[in-house]
Design goal:
Blueprint lengths: L7 H10 L2 E5 L6 H8 L4 E4 L3 H9 L1 H7 L4 E4 L7 H10 L8 E5 L2 H11 L4 E5 L5 H7 L5 H7 L3 H5 L5 H20 L5 H13 L3 E2 L2 H8 L3 H13 L3 E4 L15 E4 L2 H7 L5 H6 L3 H19 L6 E5 L4 E8 L2 E7 L11 H10 L4 E8 L5 E2 L5 E4 L5
Parallel strand pairs: 1-4, 1-5, 2-3, 3-4, 11-12, 12-14
Antiparallel strand pairs: 6-8, 7-8, 9-10, 10-11, 13-14
């Protein structure tokens, strides 16, 4: 079963207007299958194959002769030397768009090659795991809690017979063995896996690198490097605070989130909806899920980088969406029946920022339907967060 992606029209438009399209994202988010489905007339080669990667790196001219445009080159980061030759090939026929469609799951290597050789020639698009709207578009009877535990990896949702535990065990093993070893020198994969699990325990919390390093037993510089690796491979995301000139005691540290709640639940040993409801981490998992939906919403609207959080020494609002200089405020609450008390921080920030600047606010929850709260905000089901 094919699950349609929100980015499909964007990818078609990019291929019509740019000579190169670069599709990034974590492993197993559907980059290759999406491009092959949308562009069936393009050739295809995967640099996951060592022989192809070796020729692309050592004999790039011969490689491009074997795989002329238009073509899809999968996992292109395995041949950094190829980027300069792609530039020559593109410039020889600059008016031809959609020549090369590239995928990569390691942003460090990929973006270095793009910025050095393909600047001004490539459109960069990021594909994340499935949003709740994408899942329910194909599987309308999927419950919210089931979507949280199963996660947004397309293969898991397209085939309900796949064993959840086996999938994530395999995913972690593949990620550690392939991406981690190739991104940087990691002395102990066991320590790195412990670091990843420690990040999972801190999802939806302020990032404190010193505490993270101490708990895992590694140097702060190593923690900083490993965190960058997790960001580069699409496993975690950092949410920056929103600043206002009128809040002098605001927190400056970012918040840490895993990008997919299925992987988060696997790392927290949450294997079922029942165990999710009973978990002491359910609030953090819910906030992580709401964060993912808000990121999808921002990307669909072309507002990448518009999502923040607000915090001073005593109060916090989980999410602030900035739209043309005005703000939407969101609190993530696991409850099915939020009250005005759940929106007190929304009201506080509305008064601090100025009512004229706030275009709306809501408590994102598990309610069946949206309804107004007494202080002018709304209770908003996550299914309506579009």
């Amino acid at each position: 079963m094919w699950i349609q992606r929100d980015l499909e029209s964007r990818l078609r438009q990019s291929a019509r207007t740019r000579p190169v399209v670069v599709l990034t994202g974590a492993r197993q988010t559907g980059k290759t299958s999406t491009l092959r489905r949308l562009f069936p007339d393009h050739g295809f080669v995967s640099l996951d194959l060592p022989t192809e990667a070796e020729q692309a790196e050592k004999e790039p001219d011969a490689f491009l002769h074997r795989h002329p445009a238009p073509t899809i080159i999968d996992e292109v980061q395995y041949a950094p030397a190829l980027f300069r030759h792609l530039k020559v090939a593109v410039d020889s026929n600059r008016n031809r768009n959609g020549q090369f469609l590239l995928t990569g799951s390691q942003k460090f290597t990929l973006m270095k090659g793009v910025s050095e050789s393909l600047a001004g020639r490539a459109d960069i698009v990021e594909l994340e795991t499935l949003s709740l709207a994408e899942i329910r578009g194909a599987l309308p009877r999927t419950g919210v809690e089931a979507a949280i535990v199963r996660g947004g990896f397309p293969e898991l949702n397209a085939n309900p017979d796949i064993d959840l535990v086996a999938f994530y065990n395999s995913y972690l093993a593949t990620y550690l063995e392939r991406d981690v070893r190739s991104l940087a020198s990691v002395g102990s994969l066991r320590d790195f896996e412990r670091f990843l699990r420690a990040c999972a325990l801190r999802s939806a919390n302020l990032l404190n690198k010193a505490d993270l390093a101490r708990d895992v037993g590694i140097a702060p510089s190593t923690a900083n490097q490993w965190l960058s690796m997790l960001e580069a491979s699409g496993q975690v995301a950092l949410l920056e605070p929103w600043f206002s000139n009128r809040t002098k005691t605001i927190i400056k540290s970012p918040k840490l989130y895993l990008t997919d709640t299925g992987l988060l639940c696997a790392l927290l040993n949450i294997r079922s909806e029942a165990s999710l409801r009973e978990s002491p981490a359910v609030g953090a998992v819910w906030e992580t899920f709401v964060f993912a939906q808000l990121r999808h919403r921002a990307r669909r609207a072309g507002r990448v980088g518009s999502l923040f959080f607000w915090r001073d020494r005593t109060r916090e609002v989980d999410f602030v969406a900035e739209i043309g200089g005005r703000l939407e405020l969101f609190e993530a609450k696991w409850t099915e029946l939020p009250s005005a008390a759940d929106a007190v921080n929304l009201e506080f920030v509305r008064n601090v920022a100025g009512k004229s600047r706030i275009v709306g606010g809501a408590v994102v929850c598990r309610a069946a339907n949206s309804f107004p709260l007494p202080n002018g905000f709304r209770a908003l089901p996550v299914t309506e967060l579009t």
